[in-house]
Amino acid sequence: MGDLVWIFFSAMVVNNFTLMLFLGLCAFIGVSQRVETALRLGLADIFVLTMTSVCVWALNKFVLTHAPYLRIIAFIVVIASLVQIVEMVIKKTSPALFRALGIYLPLITTNCAVLALAVFQTSRGYGLVEGLVFALGGGLGLMLALVLMASIREATDLSDVPSIARGTALVMLISSGLSLAFMGFAGLMSGE
Amino acid sequence: MTAVSAREDLLKGIWRDNPTLVQTLGMCPTLAVTNSVANCLAMGGATLFVLVGSCVIASLVRKRLPGEVRITAFVLIIATFVTIADMALEALVPTVHKALGAFVALIVVNCIILARQEAFASKNPVGRAFLDAVGMGLGFVVALLMMGVVREVLGYGTLLGVPLFGPRFEPWVIFALPPGGFLTLGLWLLGLAWWADRRTRRTKATVAPAGVRRAA
Q1: Taking CB atoms and an 8 Å limit, are A180 and B174 in contact across chains?
Q2: Alpha-helical segments (H) within A59-161
Q3: Beta bridge partners of B178
Q4: CA–CA separation, A117 vs A107, rounded Å?
Q5: What is the DSSP string of A129-146?
Q6: What are B162's strand-pairing partners?
C-alpha cells in the first residue's frame, strides 16, 4: 500500500511528467492559453494514460516476452489504435464529452508522455495495479501542470510583456519557475 | 536539381528554419537530455540517423502509399529505425544509452521526424528528401549543442567531462537540473528574438526572415 502511495505521488508531483521529465511539452506549449481547454486536455490525457497502462501490461505479459525487439513498434501501434478506439467509443456513448475534448483527443497519440509511460512501466516492471496508479498519478500531474501554466498565461495576457518575450520564450521562462517550485517536492519523498 | 537548390535544401534546416529554435518542434529531447554535451551528441546522432533513414524510405514509397494510411506507415517506418538506433546505442555505448534512458525510445514521437516526412519527404524525390533530412538533423544537433554547452559549463563546470575552471569553481547546479533546461531554452529564444528584432529595425526597408520572426 505504501508503495502505491509512493508511486502515485512520485508520478504526480516529485517526478512530474511535464515539469521534471519534460514530457508532453508540445501540448503544454500549444494548448495552455486557456484554463478551460487545458483542463479538458488534462482529462483526455488521464483517460488515455490509464487505458494505455492496461494495454501495455497485457502486451508485456502475453506478447512481448516472446519478441522483446518489437517493443517500441508494438507500443506505438497500440497507442495509436487505442486513441482511435477511445475516440470512437466516446463519440458513440457520450457525444457531450466528445465535443468537450474535441481535437485534443486524436493529438494525444503524439504526446510523448503516453509512450514514456509505456516505456517506464516496462523498465520498472510495474504490475497491473501499480501501472494503473502510476498512470493516474502521471495523468493528474500533467493536468496540474497544464492548468497552472494556463492560469499564469491568462494573467500574462493582461500584463505588459516586451514584444520579444511573447510566445514560446515566455512559456519557457515561466516553466522554469514552475519547475523550480516543483523541485521543492523532492524533499517530500526521501526515497529518490 | 541545380546546385543552388540542393544547397538550399541542405542549409535551410541548419539555421534559418531550424526545427527546434525556429519551428519549436522536438522540445522534449531538447530539454531532457541536454545537461551534458556527450548526451547531446548521442541524442543528436541517433535522431539524425532516424530522421535521414525515415525520410529516405518515406520518399521512396511516396507514390505507392495510399493517403489514408500514410501517417500510420510513417510512424511504423520511424519506429523501425528507432529500434535499430536503440539496439546500436545499447551495444556500442551502454553508459550513454543508460543516461538517455527512455528518451531513445521517445525519438519515435519526436515531431521533427514526422513533420519532415509529411511536409517534405512525401512530396519530393529521394535526393532532395535526403538533403533536407540531413540539414534538419544537423539543425537539431546545433540546437542541442547550444543547450548542452551552456548547461554543462554552468551546471558542472566541465566541457565534455573536462574541468574548465579549476577546483575553486562552485557549479551552478540548477542549470544541470530540469529548471535550468527551461531557463536556458527560454533565454536562447529570447536572445534570438532580440537579435531578429534588432536586425529588422536596422534594415527597416527589408522584411525580416519569416522563420526567425516566428520564434519571437
Answers
A1: yes
A2: 71-93, 95-101, 104-107, 112-123, 128-158
A3: none
A4: 16
A5: HHHHHHHHHHHHHHHHHH
A6: B159
Q: Nearest CB to B105: which of A19, A72, A168? A: A72
Domain ranges of chain A: 2-179
What residue of B is the nearest CA neighbor of A115?
Answer: B106
pLDDT in single tens digits along all 192 residues of chain A: 678 888 898 888 888 888 888 888 877 887 788 888 888 888 888 888 999 999 999 998 888 888 788 888 888 888 888 888 888 888 888 887 777 777 677 777 777 888 889 989 988 888 899 999 999 999 999 999 999 999 999 988 888 888 888 888 888 999 999 999 988 887 776 554
SS3 string of chain B? CCHHHHHHHHHCCCCCCCCCCCCCCCHHHHHHCCCCHHHHHHHHHHHHHHHHHHHHHHHHCCCCCCHHHHHHHHHHHHHHHHHHHHHHHHHHCHHHHHHHHHHCHHHHHCHHHHHHHHHCHHHCCHHHHHHHHHHHHHHHHHHHHHHHHHHHHHHHCEECCEECCCCCCCCCHHHHCHHHHHHHHHHHHHHHHHHHHHHHHHCCCCCCCHHHHHHC
Q: Do B79 and A165 touch (CB under 8 A)?
A: no
Q: Which of B18, B25, B27 to mutate to test the interface with A (most CBs of A within 10 A)?
A: B27
| ipTM for this model | 0.85
Q: Quick check: A176 and B108 CB within 8 A?
A: no
The grid coordinates of residue A56 equal: 501495455
Distance from the B52 Cα atom to the nearest Cα atom in chain A, whole angstroms = 18
Helix, strand or coil, per DSSP, at residue A33: coil
Cell numbers representing residue B16 in the block: 534559418
Contact B186 A176 (CB under 8 A): yes
Q: What pTM does this model have?
A: 0.86
CA neighbours closer than 13 Å in the CB half-sphere of residue A72: 23
The residue of A15, A19, A20, A22 whose CB has the most chain B CBs within 10 angstroms, and thus the best one to mutate to test that interface, is: A22
